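Predict structure. Chain length: 129.
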Amino acid sequence: MTKKLVTLAAFFGLVAIILGAFGAHGLKSVLTPEQLTSFETGVKYQMYHALFLLLISQLNILTEKNKRTIGILTTIGVFLFSGSIYLLATQELSGINFKFLGPITPVGGVFLIISWFFTAFYSMKQKRN
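Prediction complete.
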């Protein structure tokens, strides 16, 4: 599971860097300041959770099953939260109405919150050495 989490974290981090640079250089002149701020929020949360997955991959106090659960929750959260933000922020540019994704963003946020909750829960559940 460690290898999969590190690979996933690296993928999320790589994409966050690419999208962050694209937002700062390619979208700055075509998005409103509010849209750009929203896009940047998606990038930040994606990067936070890339780093989170790297941390999870290295925690010896979590079982492989715990890591898998946290990894799945985090992945769903990143795709729903950051992914919906990217599409909503650029919908005028793409000409596609993504407003129906508005309710998806907080659902993604809930998945991210739950992944952090389970990290704390699983950590506290471990027997003391």
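Summary: The longest helix spans residues 2-27.
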